[in-house]
Structures are given as C-alpha cells and as structure tokens.
Amino acid sequence: MDAKELIHMVYRGAHAGNSSTVSIFRRGVEQSPYADKWMAEGMMYSVYAGRLSAVGTDTDDPLESYWKLRKNLMLYDIPERPIEISGRDAVHLLEKTFTRRISNLPVWRACYGIICAPHGGLVMDGVLIRLAEDRFWYVEANGDTAKWFLALSDGMEVTIRDPKSRVLQVQGPNALKFLEAAAPGQIPERFRYFDAGMFDFGGQNVLVSRTGWTNEMGIEIYGNENLDHSALWDHLFSVGEAFNLERSGSASLGLRRVEAGILDYQSDIDLTMTPFDAGLGTFVDLTKDNFVGKAALEKASKACRLFGYVSKEAKVNAGLTILESGQPVGITKSSCWSPTLESGVGYVVFDQGLSNGETWVGKTLTIEDAAGDEHDCEIVTLPFFDKEKKIPRGLSPELG
Questions:
Q1: Cα dihedral angle (315, 316, 321, 324), rounded to 10 degrees?
Q2: Of the candidates 23, 138, 275, 306, which lies 20 to 30 Å from 264 by C-alpha distance?
Q3: pTM of the predicted model, to two decimals?
C-alpha cells in the first residue's frame, strides 16, 4: 500500500472493514457561504462546529495538496465558529472562564486559550483575539461555547453573539507575500505570529490573524454577516493567480495539523481530560484569581498522558491499542501517514501518566494496527518535527 492509499484509508475510516462515511440530512447544519465556488459531485463532508466541512472527493489527491501547502500556498474553507464577547465586563467574564490571564492580552493580538469545567475537564480550546479593550472574538473548535459564556455571564454587562463569520485559511511559506499582494501596503512593519489586524481586500474590510491549523506560515481571513463572500473569494483568487493558489479539502490540512501536534477538540481531547493530561499545562496559570476549574486543577495530577507515536510499518488510525509487554496501556487518537517523515504518526492517550521522573517518551511499545497486525512504535514529544515552531514564525526555510 503506497502513501496515497494510506492517506485515503485514514480519512475514509476504512479500517477493519468499516466505513465512517454516511449520508446526512442537512437541516440545522450550515453550509459554507463559499460552497458554490468549490462544490463538486461526490464531495465528502464532515460536520464540525455545526457546519459542513469539505473533506474532498475520491478524485482528490491529498498528498499533492499537502506538498503544495508545504512548498507554496493552499487555501482552506474552514468551519471554525468565532464568538464575539463584548461589553464593560468582557474581560471579567473571560478571566473567570479561561485558565490563563486575559487582561494583559494587547489589542490586535491573539492567544491560544482553554476553558475548563468545575471538575477540571476541558470544555473547549481555541484562539482568542482582542479587537478592542472591551471586545474579543473566540474562535472555538468543535463545540458550542457561546452557551457556556452565557451561563457564566449572569449579572455581568456583556454581550455574547455570533458574528456569522466563516474562516478562510491561506497557509504555506508564501502566505505573507500573498497577503501583501491582496492588501498592498497594509501589512504592519511587525506582523508577528499571533498578531491580528483589519485589512482591505478589494474594497471590503476583513479581520486577518497570522495563525492557522497547519504550523506553516499562514493567515486566517474572517468574514462577517455584512461581507460579500463571492466578491472576497474572487478577489483572493484573482490575486492568487500569480501564486498558483488553489483550494483544498480538509484531508491535506489534517495531515499537516497532526504532524504539527495540533489537537482537535472531541477527537483528541475532551471533557474527561484535564489540561495536564493533554500536555497543555503551560496554558494554565494557577497564580491568577479564581477561574472555573482552578480548585480541581490545583489538586489534579500534573503528569501528561498524551504524546505522539511513530511507526514505520503500521497502518495507523484512531482507536488502536498501544501495548506494553502485551498489556494495553493506551489508545490512539488522530493519526495519519506523514509524508514528511514517511511514517505512520499520531497521538496516543495513555491510561495513566508517569511520575517520579519516569516518562513515556523514548519507550518502544507495540501498536495493534488497523490491519490487526502488531508493530513497534516509538513514543515521542509533540510536534513530530519543527519542535521550536520556527516554520510558522518564518524563522526556518526548512520543510521539516
């Protein structure tokens, strides 16, 4: 089985004779406002954040799109759903909600932020962008955090609303050159990783952040309810002709985000895991004033249970068993064939974290793969390469 076949196997769930592809009735599930620009016969979708996300068709080549992403540019129509939090008590609400400090986040700056339940379990993760002293957008992953904000805002002067934004990601080493061409003369002298700003694209003002779901150099373009989506799309692709810009389904994006160690809420982390379980303890500030889940997190084990695994021969997928000396010790989460490493890679959540100086990292364990065969796998830290994240910061010309 070659790399392309392995990639298609994972994204169609075709392991152990089962398929995860089903037909759905679309009522209550949002279609993209850009769909008429790329919809094709036989398109396969996933449902994410209550929205349809195009995975691709049987004729698409995720491997070809992956290398275009890594070497040039690729555009993705992303279903992430921003939530707007504004008003006099916006910062107060967010300090109560998030595990890290929010009051010191500068305007036009973004940060990764996680939200926990009273028992310390993960409610949501995403990117928070400060648009003004009292106005923020939280770009959540797969969930419905708006109701959580509303429940915690009792007695506060704050507005929680859906700005009806659909996100376009332009990712790849030429992303900033593309931004300069699409919005000439508008890039600030310092437009750093996780900076944000308003840009004029063909006469329309849109929010842009220097972020993405690939750990490549990239930008995210956020529409709104007043946007002419068709005109924006046409502008981007008119400018993009000089860059050979193409759109891809999420399959190639998914390959890169796993290599990059980016976790997906519900697929990799969920309410049963604390930030420490997931290796996200860096984003928990136990010195800040009380926030939801703080008391539980102070008492929780600080040992990490989520790591990466690499296996040269295994046909990898989610839901596979990891064994130590023949005994199950963990289960795989998001997994894929890594075109850069030419190996099967993915995440494993162990039944328990190790303490007293011990670690899962560096151990060679056994994976019972999608074909039912056993293979060696090595446990590693995330991400799988570019450990210092130089690529999205524009500090490294290397591909891996």
A1: 80
A2: 23
A3: 0.93
